[in-house]
C-alpha cells in the first residue's frame, strides 16, 4: 500500500442482526470510497446470496485444500 494509512473497519455480529443491511447502506453510499473484503465460507448459500458477491462459497474439502496449499 505504499505507506498509505488505511482504516480497517470490522462489522461483526451474530446471524440475523442486520450486518448485511448495515453493509449495504454503507457501500451503496456514493459519497464513500470504502472497499469490501468478501469472506469465504463453507456454509450453504442462503436464498438471495450470490457466490463471489456475498461470500465465496466452498465445500469443506475445497476450503481444506486451500489451507493445505497455503492460499490464505
From TrEMBL:
GO terms for cellular component: cytosol. The keyword Cell cycle does not apply. CDD domains: GMPK (cd00071). InterPro entries: GK/Ca_channel_bsu (IPR008145), Guanylate_kin-like_dom (IPR008144), Guanylate_kinase_CS (IPR020590), P-loop_NTPase (IPR027417). Essential for recycling GMP and indirectly, cGMP. Belongs to the guanylate kinase family. PANTHER family: GUANYLATE KINASE (PTHR23117:SF13), GUANYLATE KINASE-RELATED (PTHR23117). This is Guanylate kinase. It comes from Lentilactobacillus parakefiri. The lineage of its organism: Bacteria, Bacillati, Bacillota, Bacilli, Lactobacillales.
Amino acid at each position: 500500500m505504499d505507506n498509505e494509512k488505511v482504516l480497517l473497519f470490522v462489522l461483526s455480529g451474530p446471524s440475523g442482526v442486520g450486518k448485511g443491511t448495515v453493509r449495504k447502506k454503507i457501500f451503496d453510499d456514493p459519497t464513500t470510497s470504502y472497499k469490501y473484503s468478501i469472506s469465504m465460507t463453507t456454509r450453504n448459500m442462503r436464498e438471495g446470496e450470490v457466490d463471489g458477491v456475498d461470500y465465496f462459497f466452498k465445500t469443506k474439502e475445497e476450503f481444506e485444500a486451500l489451507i493445505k496449499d497455503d492460499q490464505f
